[in-house]
């Protein structure tokens, strides 16, 4: 199923179900993997989504997708490090550390890690130790938040 059909056939059904259950529809994709076609729906909510909520959404949306051709239906959390794709993703990540992978190397590197300072339809601005980099969005393979885990120092143990 081409992306256009996903947008016209699948997304409205998924969005309606997400709205009814007060979830955010993050994305939906139909991909061929191995012997089957996977319809993956990514949902979330403020504070994160639970396994029980993912299962409830799965049970509710599955009958509504009967006319769509797929082999496996997966309802997933997008994860903390989900790629930034939509304006709301960029707004959520503004001022935080992100990792940008480029299709082609810029200044000898395909990877830039820094703070997301601005974005619009055509570009993103990332600030790192070398300064600000304004990059064309078409040059970005992926941009996602950097997840940093602070391990508490437990002190010396005897």
Short structural summary:
By secondary structure, the protein is an alpha+beta fold. The chain contains three helices and eight strands, in the order αββαβαβββββ. Helices cover 23% and strands 40% of the residues.
Please describe the topology of this protein.
Layout lengths: L2 H18 L3 E10 L2 E9 L6 H11 L10 E5 L10 H7 L3 E10 L2 E11 L3 E6 L2 E6 L3 E6 L13
Parallel strand pairs: 2-3
Antiparallel strand pairs: 1-2, 4-5, 4-8, 5-6, 6-7
The span between the termini is: 61 Å
- The coarse overall form would be globular
Tell how many strands the DSSP assignment holds: 8
Secondary-structure element series: HEEHEHEEEEE
Oligomer: single chain
Strand order in space, largest sheet? 7-6-5-4-8
Q: Which consecutive residue ranges, at least 5 long each, have pLDDT under 50?
A: none
Helical segment count: 3
Write down the Rg.
19 Å
The pLDDT mean sits at: 89
Describe the protein in words:
With 158 residues, this protein is of the alpha+beta class. Helices cover 23% and strands 40% of the residues. The protein is built from 3 helices and 8 strands. The protein has a 5-stranded antiparallel beta sheet with strand order 7-6-5-4-8, with no helix packed on it. A hairpin with a 3-residue loop joins strand 5 and strand 6. The longest helix has 18 residues. The N and C termini lie far apart (61 Å). The model has no long low-confidence stretch (mean pLDDT 89).
